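Researcher: Next sequence.
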Amino acid sequence: MKSVIPDPRLPVAAELPRAPMGILASYRAARDNILSIIPEAALEVPILSGRTGPDRWHMVMDPPSIRRILLERVESYPKSEVTKSILRPALGDSLFVAEGDHWRWQRRAAAPAFAARNVDALTPVMTRAAEAAVARIGAAVGRRAINAVDEMVGATFDVIADVTLSDREGIDRQEVGAALDAYIDSAARVSLLDVLGLPGWVPRPGRQVAVAELSRLQGDMEAAIARRAVEGPRPIPDLMDLLLAATDPETGRRMTTSELRENLLTFIVAGHETTALTLAWALYLCAFDPEVQARAGAEAREVLGARAAGAEDVARLPFVRQVVEEALRLYPPGGFLSRTAQDRDRLAGAEIRRGDTVMIPVYGLHRHRRLWEEPDAFRPDRWAARAEIDRYQYLPFGDGPRICIGARFAMQEAVVILATLLARFRFRAVPGRGPRPVMILTLRPEGGVWLEVEAV
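Model: Next structure:
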């Protein structure tokens, strides 16, 4: 790992090694920060290939090749076994983990739940969460600094809990959050057995302990689903209602209780921490660049006045959305995609063999020297010309048929909450407490995002 003196003109970035590492060094680095296995050289070339022990790997940062992996030959590049072994104990064969026909029917059945009309119908939940965040943060003005990570995790968990678990009977939200956090922290760390390529049936002790912690939560979820099936939907259907009613239009198949449980847990895991991290990084960036913060805040105040944002406001907040998009570029919550090649292929001129690990280091792709002007700079204005950016060089939600099903929901939630906060407050970084980008399962700001707050 090279020693880096941070450039004060640029927001924080991960330290990358000069060259690929050996097997044990890769294991140690990946346990602490998966970004640490991305060599700096990868940010200069379309593809970088190598070996870890007996296994061949390729890091791909060439948009046409990424399109081939995620769209044109998606069946030839399923999720890697490492990814599945981390996620399957908690999420089963849900949308996030399943492959082939089992994934396709679930996607067809669930897609209508995330249509624009349903996202708009659920946006009042986001508005209420934004108002609650304003109240909490307002109590800190002039008294103490806040950790934006904690504040945004609270806000987004309120949202995802309300849209998936609006029936609160028998579900302890704090227990849900604690169980999921424990699973992510212990189970998502790369095992030496993963690096050595041992099959998934070989026990990983940390994951076994974490899965045991989830068993009670899974039982509570099944009980909530059973109650809802008897009681019927809410006046404004939540995600549980929509999935209970979901039917695959091709086969007529509906989700079983266990499939519903797995998918609801998937949406809780994917929909709460990722959006919270995006918002925390966006607030860090606004504090880093007061001019951007002032411009976004002025736009929010002009549109919102003294109220919280709603669905009807999102289209009128283009610069706030650009701030979110740039935060997702610099700090993508899912900073690493890993696939296993099923067939021989060629990507960016490199030979791909069956069994090779094909990685898309999204964090590196978003900072690639040949794809972005000033790749490490915070420049929300680059998104004013969104059509000029190749969609396969920007993957905060993945792409192709497996693009994140909740992408529209996540963007709407982020814009609603960020605009509401910037309309009310001005944020300043606490000196000496800058975050460090660290990825285990998601890209987190290690040390938190500590901000001083004043009312506007």
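Model: Residues 23-455 form a domain with the Cytochrome p450 fold (CATH 1.10.630.10). The longest helix spans residues 257-288.
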